[in-house]
User: Fold Ribosomal RNA large subunit methyltransferase H from Synechococcus sp..
Amino acid sequence: MNPSRCRIIAIGKVRKSWVQDGIELYRKRLPGLTIVELRDSNPEKEAESIRQTLRRDEWPVMLMEQGETLTSINFSERLRSLGSQRLAFVIGGADGLTAELKALAHWKLSLSPMTFPHELARLLLIEQLFRAQAILQGSPYHRA
Assistant:
């Protein structure tokens, strides 16, 4: 997994300092990973903003409650299987993603059957990206 081939596109700003601290901790460990924050609004405006931000060479990975739930090891294996494909992990706002955006997904991913605030979902995702990299590199960070 190459962090420079991944972006996180998220609606809204992180307002809680402890969440921002966690995100920054993992960002430093994943050099090259980009996080794009888009203004929160209504779902249609958010969807348009996300569509405009997605690049043609990226596969959108939509984070959603109805997405595929994976173990950390399975997540790392999936990332490895995608090779050098550019990925854009998309985290919607409070009202989630529109049906139109969900239809654009190359992969629908759920972090859990539970619902999380988008700020916390961002922290969980970046930690799982770091964990996936650690698993693929054989690092002791992941202890199953």
Summary: Residues 76 and 84 are 14 Å apart (CA to CA). Residues 3-137 form a domain with the Alpha/beta knot fold (CATH 3.40.1280.10). The helical segments are 17-29, 43-53, 72-81, 99-104, 118-137. The longest strand covers residues 58-69.
